[in-house]
Write a structure and sequence with these properties.
alpha+beta, Cyclic Phosphodiesterase, Chain: A, four-stranded antiparallel beta sheet, binds adenosine-5'-triphosphate, binds magnesium ion
Amino acid sequence: MRLFIAIELNDEIKAALRKAQGALSAFDRAVRWVTSDQMHLTLKFLGEVPDARVEEVTAAAGRVAQASSLFEMVVGGCGCFPANGRVRVVWVGLNEPSGTLAACNDLCEARYAEIGFDRERRTFSPHLTLGRVRDDRTGGKLREAVEGTRFEPLRQTVESMCVVQSTLTPHGARYAIIARHALTVA
Ligand code: ATP
Ligand code: MG
């Protein structure tokens, strides 16, 4: 099954993300917006995992969680990937002053590399995907609108991380949480 490691978002943040999508509704035809139940923060994408290895993968996430402290993140600020040219992904960024999220991502990379998963080559740039664009023909208008969208900063205390199964369908990905591991209280 297709798996990734993620952090769930609270309802207040999801509502704010929907509001940001609403503010960009002029681009509804260009962008495939993610639905509320798809909103998340990806820590590590694992890809296809044989059924026989799911338990091992889940246990590894448990060890990462145990070695990570709970932390606070501040969500806010809209942007696009890539940084220039045609937009592929519209996102909301986040700050995480404690550095715990980055440390948690490092731990994931190390643990999963140990058990044979590819390390991510790109540097970790934590973001919440708002929407995806197949073919941006807006001539820069979408980027301009995204970069001009206000998003009042919101806080969330992150207390757990999840192993998520993703099923790709013609209507987008369906996610199901198969394990949730508590982070450690410092
Ligand atoms: P779709 O692929 O239909 O657009 P999706 O991207 O939401 O849907 P998945 O492709 O299963 O669903 O991805 C699950 C999560 O992992 C998403 O947050 C996605 O951005 C991230 N992800 C997917 N592929 C990679 C990859 N190769 N490297 C890093 N992150 C990835
Ligand atoms: Mg994808």
